Amino acid sequence: MLAFGVDRVTLAEIARRADVSRPTIYRRFPDTDSILAALLTQRITEALDDVPRRGVGRKPLVRRIIGLAQRVRDDDVVMSVLHQAPGLAMFYLSERLGTSQQLLLDTVAAEIAAAQGEGSVRPGEPRELAAMTMLITQSTILSAQVVAPILPAERLATELAHALNGYLAP
């Protein structure tokens, strides 16, 4: 994908590079988009694992989200799919929650509920707050390149932290 671009990835090329037959690939994946979706899920899950929870409360939660956003923005595979396969990206950004989005929602909702319990996050349904937090963060990730001349990476992270802290504060 990185070598040829997302739109030129074929099941035949994936099978060749994986040194397996095309029927082997077809037994697990019906098409290239499903392979890309599985790859995105794997990369985002790995990013979440790479940015562990460091305590309970709004500040550790926001730090984790900022770290995760940075990790995703630095992931060449994720960003290639987002920028080179806009149809696939838009499907998961506007029509359907994907597996990785569900995982992120569940994780953030649980952390929001814990932070509410200790008083650093405002009242509200944790999954609803997590969904809005995800929308804010996704927007930042998707638009970071556009605003890079105005908000370089470190300032973008600072401003995202301000937005999330303000949104979640009691």
Automatic annotation (TrEMBL):
Residues 10-29 bind DNA. Gene3D superfamilies: Tetracycline Repressor, domain 2. InterPro entries: DNA-bd_HTH_TetR-type_CS, Homeodomain-like_sf, HTH-type_TetR-like_transc_reg, HTH_TetR. Residues 1-47 form the HTH tetR-type domain. Keywords: DNA-binding, Transcription, Transcription regulation. It comes from the Bacteria. One of its GO terms (molecular function) is DNA-binding transcription factor activity. This is TetR family transcriptional regulator.
